[in-house]
Amino acid sequence: MGGWALAVHGGAGVDPNLPPHRQEQAKQLLTRCLNLGISALRSNASAIDVVELVVRELETDPLFNSGRGSALTEKGTVEMEASIMDGSKRRCGAVSGLTTVKNPISLARLVMDKSPHSYLAFNGAEEFARQQGVEVVENEYFITPENVGMLKLAKEANTILFDYRIPTAGYDSCGVGAESPLQMNGLPISVYAPETVGCVVVDKEGRCAAATSTGGLMNKKSGRIGDSPLIGAGTYACGVCGVSCTGEGEAIIRGTLAREVAAVMEYKGLSLQQAVDFVIKHRLDEGKAGLIAVSNTGDVAYGFNCNAMFRGCATEDGFMEVGIWD
Ligand code: ASP
Asked: Where exactly is the site Cleavage (predicted)?
C-alpha cells in the first residue's frame, strides 16, 4: 500500500427500520464528505487540515449528531464536544460543553494550535471561542424539530437514546429487544443508532490525523462527557495510525478504544485491520460501538460490533465506498 487514504463515519448502530430516503441522504452526505477530502488531499492538504475540513462539513449539515442536529440534553439544550489529533506531531485539542460554537472541531483545533492546553470545557471553552473570534450562534440553531421529537420520546420512555431510536415494544437491533433492554451504567437504553461523526486521514507524507465531533447522547445529563472529546478513547492519532470511534461512549472510555488500536499495532505488530478486529473483539462490550482507522502506510479499516455503522472510505488508487449495514 501507500499513498493517501481517508475514512469518515456518521455513527455506529442504526435503526433497522431507518427509512430508505434517510439512508440515501446519509450515503450522499458521506460521499460528499469523501469527495471534499479527496480533492483536498489531491491538492496536497495535510492530514490534520483534511480531518478538520471534513468534520466541519458534517457539523454544518444537520443530518448527523454533531454541530447543527446535535442530540439534546435532558434539559432540551445542546452541549457539544469534539477532539482532534495530529499524529505526526502528537498534538491534540479537545472541547466539551459547547453551547454556541458553530463548528466545535475548529475550536478543538484552536485549543491545539493556540492555547497552552489540550482540553477546554464549558464556560472556559466558550470564553476561549470568543477570544479566538470563531463563529458563534444561538443554541437554538443546533436544535432540530426531529431531535425535539426524539427527546420527547426518550423522556416518555425514561431512556437515554442514541439518535433515531424510538423505544417501541418488540423493537430489535443488535439482537436485543425491548424486553431485555441494554443497560448503560444501570440506565436502560434502547437499540442504538448514534450518529456522532468522525474522520481519519493519512496524507501522502504518511502523516495520520483523527477528528471526532458529537452532541453526545439524546437525553443525556447536562454535564455528561462522552468518549468523543477524550484523546485515547474516542479519538487518537500517532505516527502509526489515526482512529475515530462511535457508539456508547461509556463503553468506549472503559476500553480506551482508539489508543488501544495504536497500542496493539505498536506492541503486538498487528496490521491495521488485525488491530481493529482485535480491539473490537477484546476491548469492547458486545453491541456497543465501532471505529474507523487509517495507518501510516495508507491502509484504511473499520470495525463495529453492533448492527451497522454509517461509514465511507477512499484511497489514492481510486477505491471509494460508502456503506451502512454489516
Ligand atoms: N460516542 C458518542 C457518545 O457517547 C455517541 C455516538 O457515537 O454517537 O457521546
From this structure: 195-196
* Rounded Cα–Cα distance for residues 109 and 167 (Å): 37
Q: Hey, where are the domains in the chain?
A: 5-142+191-316
Ligand 1 centre and the CA of 228: distance in Å? 6
Tell me, what amino acid is at 202? Answer: V
Neighbours of 111 (CB within 10 A): 25
| Cα–Cα nearest to 192, from 143, 273, 252 | 252
Give the CA diameter of the chain. Answer: 53
97 marked as binding residue: no
For residue 269, pLDDT over 50 is answered with: yes
Looking at the CA of residue 71, tell me the nearest atom of ligand 1: 8
- Ligand 1 atom showing the smallest separation from residue 196 Cα: 8
pLDDT at residue number 167: 39
Which CATH superfamily hosts domain 5-142+191-316?
Answer: (Glycosyl)asparaginase (3.60.20.30)
